[in-house]
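INFO  loader      accepted 1 record
INFO  loader      residues=411
INFO  predictor   begin
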Amino acid sequence: MSQNDISHLLGVLVALLFAAKLLGLLAQRVGQPSIVGELIAGILLGKSVIGLLDPADPIIHSLAQIGVIVLLFEIGLHTDLRSLIRVGGAALAVAAIGVAVPFALGVAVCIALGLSSIPAIVAGAALTATSIGISARTLSDLGQLNTVEGQIVLGAAVIDDVIGLVILSVVAGVVGGAALSTGSIASTAAIAVGFILAALLLGNLFIPPFFRFLDRVEESGTLGVVGLAFAFLLAWLASLAGSATIIGAFAAGLVLHNTPQRSRIEAATTSLGLFFVPIFFAAVGASVEIGIFTDPRALAIGTALLVVAVGGKVVAGYAPFWMKGRKLLMGVAMIPRGEVGLIFAQMGLVSAALTPQLFSALTFVVLATTLITPPLLAWMVRSAPKVSDTRERPGDGGIDDLVAGAAQSRD
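INFO  predictor   done
INFO  writer      dumping tokens
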């Protein structure tokens, strides 16, 4: 790389980070999550407007992929599997319906609009996972974390992420040329789930003693660096095993969740994420071609997928039919897609499984679902009678701690 190339890269990074941070703060000021500002920053800097940020540049692409790994490691760090078990069958029902219905309808809509099976599967998969970061921040701001509905929504969002990661691994295999058959899907899913289980089993045996040793001899920053290195190691091993790198990063976070040193690992991860994660979202935004939205077909696809994305999650809120509560509120809280949906879309674009037209339609869906959820929830909470809190105590390792951590990790 020449001196001119380095100078150009530095200029791009300066513009990207300043724009992402500024627009992220502005988004928060108007009641939206920072991810919206980061996406808009990418759109403005991308080829559709200024033309400064090229998401296909190998260095930018590599930095963005590190951002994805750091992001999923953060989510894993904040995911307590015991809390998910305590949430119960209601969260599982919401999650299962919230994945199955949008996926099936998304595939059906795309095929009905004339798309082939692979783009249809990628598009349907992008509609499956609820953004835990966006849902957590919105429910926190509205004071709904301790309600029954709040616990179910956030538990379901975490399960959505886990299911979404497995689906992503399956879809990545299909996009990479693997035959689409029951056997191949079962094999890919088994590798993904098996890798997570193996990482949890072996990690819980060997990692806590290792980090206790590091804690005794630690020099400044050692725990954070080793924690990140562990995330990169499992991401690499997941790739070697034939799964997605983010499966490994997520598994690393799950393993380290219960270690006493988690807070210091989180601090290092958050600091690194403040640099790398906005690069990913900005790069995704830069891939959007605004001119495509003047295409009636692109608008038709985006509108149809938005209806499916919203309707599928609202239906999921009614899945636990045996419980009383604000089921519509639960469904609306499940609507935002955020980071996981963008990971699906970006993977499809890079692998050429998605056309720029369909990628932009999916990005439109992610933006729209992210933008409409906070005001809808705020209106529903203000117009409804006050609901008493559940009896789960903050700080007991329950879903409240998971929610608070997930919200802090992105916002």
